[in-house]
Every structure is written in structure tokens, then in C-alpha cells.
Amino acid sequence: MHIPDGFINIPTSAGFGAAALGGVWYSIRRAARLLDDRRIPLAGLVAAFVFAAQMVNFPVAAGTSGHLIGGVLAAVLVGPWLGTLVLTVVLVVQGFFFADGGLSALGLNVFNMALVGTLGGYLIYRGLIAILPKNRPGTLVSAGLAAGLSVPLAAFAFVLQYAIGGEGGVALTTVAAAMGGVHLLIGIGEGLITAMVVGAVLASRPDLVAAAPKVEVEVMARG
Amino acid sequence: MDKRLWWFLAIGLVVALLVAGVVSGFASGEPDGLERVSIDQGFDETAADHALGDSPLADYAVEGVEDGRLSTGLAGIIGVALTLVLSATLFYGIRLYGRARRGKEAS
After folding, report:
1. Which residue of B has its CA nearest to A53?
2. Which residues 56-85 of chain B have a CB within 8 Å of chain A?
3. Min CA distance, A131 vs chain B (Å)?
């Protein structure tokens, strides 16, 4: 889902770049309130893990692959504001060191994956956990479903950008249908990996899952 | 910081290094979702070459290492280290900023 240079024109890229910068700055302000000694190495580890997992493309259909975005995973593990910052660092490292994601498109990519995918997906997670049982299966189903839906959500943010400043003159409905379809499939992988990793952390250190329902963390910490 | 947390972090780091260093070599090389759509819909040719496309780690390969899996794996391990150091530095800076702000509000 990393946009290269050239897909979206420069004025549009600059506009979303400004929006991304605003979102990242707001996240820094919010994260500054809750960062403590324990969360710094944990958030660093989550960033390293998201970078690693994003390298592993899995096949989704004939001639097509996808990889984890990790926004909902990060948000559930370290909270939404550190989550957006985790994704932003990963995107910056990929763009500047690995030529993955255009430099003029960095703002577009941060907007789509670090802000829309992560915060939008986290909102879905909170909505689901509010109605589902507040235990381990409920947490995993919520995290998995929210992560799965965050992928088409981020894809539609690209469609919005393409609508405003896309090059190539392809009909918007065509781009929207194609992007939605393939990213719904990639979302299945995103959901499964997210549920698996959140499950592994819940099983070993439930107190480290920032967005787990309180009830479960207390019960599991006692047991 | 308690010992158990360090163990958790150490094991997590080993898992990240294994994923980036080993599993990455077995990743699918097919175009991803956005690339596929751009090819199918014919706007893939609007993509420009990456400004840093000649850098030593471009496209997750270490310049000069010929073996594909080894090159990807090494690039992955370097990437994990870079991400860890950069993010921890950023978060440490944010914590200092948060403290300074709280200090100002209190006085």
C-alpha cells in the first residue's frame, strides 16, 4: 500500500503532507502525557516488529500479495497515539533507507496508514470491544476484525487522494472497486496476524496490552 | 524496570529479528494490492523512480550481497535495528518534552 512518487500530484501530496504533520504533532502531544519508562522500550519493540512484519508479503490472489500494516496491532498494544507514531517511524525508515514509498508521497502514506488506518481501526476496535464480551476471545475478535477493516479503510483514503490529485485519469469508481476488493482480501491476513500477536502478548504479559479491557488484565494478572 | 519485562522485550526482539532476517526471505515477490490495481488500471506508469533508489539498502537488499535471501535478511536486520533506535530516541524525546510541559504547568 506504499504509494510511490508520481501517482498523486504534488499539490495534493503537499496538502496531505500538511495534514499528516498536524496529525503526528497532535499524537506527540497526546503521547507525551502518558509515556513512562516502561512504555518507551515497549513502543520501540512494537515499531521494530511492525517493520519486520511489513517485509513479509503473503499471497492473496493470483499475482497479488499483501503485507501487514500493523496500525491496529500497534494501537492495541501501546495505545492509539503511540500507535500512530510507531507507524510513522516505520514509514520514515522505509522511505529514507529502503526506497519503499516515495519521498514526495510520505505524507500521503503517513495519512493513510499511520492516521486513517491506525486511528480509524482503533475506533472500530473500541466500538467492538464495547459490545463484545470483555474477555480474551472478545478482545482477540475485536482486534482481528478492526485490523481487517483498517486495511480497506486505508485503501479508501488512497482513493480519496486519487480523486483529488491522481495521475493517469482512471475512472474513480474503477479505482475504488479495485482497491476495495483487493484490500478486503489483504485485510483477512491483517486480521489473523493481529489476533495472533495480540493473543501471544495477552497470554504472556496481559498488563502490557494497553487497550485490553481492564477486567481481563486484572483477572489474568492475579492468575 | 522489572526483570520479567526485559525478558519479554528480549524475546520480542529475537522474534522481530527472525521475521526480518529469515522469514522475509520467503515472502511473496508478487506486486502488492496497490501495485496490482495500478497495473490492472494502467496508471502504474505514472510512478517515478524513487529519489533514493540507488541507496545501499534500496528495495530491502544490501548492496554487494548477491545471494537474494541473505541480502534481504541482512537488510531486514539492519532495518529492525534502525527502527528500534530511531523510535526509542523519538519516544525518549517525547517523554522529556512531556515532563518539561508538565513542569511548566505546575509552576
Report:
1. B19
2. 57-60, 72, 75-76, 78-84
3. 31
| pLDDT digit string, tens, across residues B83-97 | 999 999 999 999 999
Best of B26, B32, B52 to substitute, by most chain A Cβ atoms within 10 angstroms, is B32
Position B1 scores a pLDDT of: 62
* pTM recorded for the entire structure: 0.96
DSSP helix, strand, coil percent of chain B (3-state; round to 5): 70, 0, 25
Task: Please name every residue paired with A22 in a beta bridge, in sequence order, or none if there are none.
Answer: none
Residue pair B50/A99 in contact by the 8 Å Cβ criterion: yes
Per-block mean pLDDT, blocks of 10 residues, chain A (223 long): 97 98 98 89 97 98 96 97 98 98 98 98 97 95 98 98 96 97 98 98 93 66 46
Cβ-defined contact of A97 to B79 (cutoff 8 Å): yes
Q: Taking chain B, what is the end-to-end CA distance rounded to the nearest angstrom?
A: 29
- Domains belonging to chain A, first-starting first, are 10-222 (1.10.1760.20)
What is the nearest CA distance from A138 to chain B, expressed in angstroms?
Answer: 24
Helix (H) or strand (E) holding A199, with range, is helix A172-204
Sort out which chain B residues have CB atoms less than 8 A from A102's CB and list them: 47-48, 50-51
Domain edges within chain B:
68-107
pLDDT digits (tens, 9 = 90+) for A5-47: 999 999 999 999 999 999 999 999 999 998 888 899 999 999 9
